[in-house]
Task: structure prediction
Amino acid sequence: MNGGFSQARLGRMHSVMAGYVERGEVPGIVTLVYRRGEVHAEALGTLTIGGVPVRRDSIFRIASMTKPVIAAAAMILVEECRLRLDDPVDSLLPELADRRVLRRLDGPVDDTVQANRPITLRDLLTFRLGFGAVMAPRGTYPIQQAIAEAGLEPSPTPPAVTPDEWMKRLGQLPLLHQPGEGWLYHTGSDILGVLIARASGQGLEAFLKERLFDPLGMKETGFHVPAAQADRLSAAYARDPETGGLRVFDDPQDSAWTQPPVFASGGGGLVSTADDYLAFCRMLLGRGRLGRERILSRSAVELMTADHLTAEQKETARPFFGGHSGWGFGGAVSLRCTELWQTPGRFGWDGGFGTSGYTDPQEDLVGILLTQRMMESPRGPRVFTDFWTSVYQAIED
Result:
């Protein structure tokens, strides 16, 4: 096969990625690049500091790379006319009916007005429902304290309460802006997971397994790692602010991901492998089809991967989009080329535990990076930048 890669330049990518392991910046890395049917994958370093080597089939927490998967699952139900993009979600999510909205973000939590309209599925998919992560230092606004006290802050770990209890708490708080008016990160995907479960009459993981994972051959993807496979799960590390080194955030020996979760988080709960996530990305690259399996229509994928935000909404979310991207359903969409890798139409997302996965239809390309070092801001770390630079500089044709 000829994927149009330079072997010498793929060697350059190896050297750059190996440098991160050798310097101790990340314990281990899996890189995978697919183009025109050709796959180049490499595993470097160790699963835990001083532990066993990383393998191509090692399991990583993919965090917010879960979001495009959940969006695809929602679109399956849209195509079956069991959900509709512009219908209110109140019938299945009565906790979101009759919303109140803060008059001002910095105002008292009880200083509200009536929502102009109900929340729709499209609002959830585009993160314009009016609720999500507040990008300000903790304690800046009263609503932040209320969200924290309710246990609804976006977190690297899944919520510790049942979906019904979580939705009940959510329904007791006001929205931060009117439905459709602004973009707020994360919470829409967790709500989507609850909506999918209620609309399908199945648990979220059961629905994903039946409609996405099994048809695509994603045998290692789920909301927890079975006991028999626990030795393949990587550790998760965060930077220690005192030493500048790495400290364990989640140990595979007693990981939150070795037991089925109380709340299957559509916003960030999945674990997966490089090849499993490649199957999902190749389905999107194939406009809804992988091999003989059609998961979505071409039209559904095109809708998912179009930019749905206004210029003002993108500007207020600039830490996420950097002036070069927009947001589709569950992931970012590149709009203009300001870096080597920002081909217009490229789509995907990153994961807060140190992962990145994007699909580029123009180049017939998928790239996946899996590490165990947690992100420290919405802007991707240098290892992301260097991975994507290395992928695109290796294209030869």
Q: What stands out?
A: The chain is about 30% helix and 15% strand. The mean pLDDT is 96.
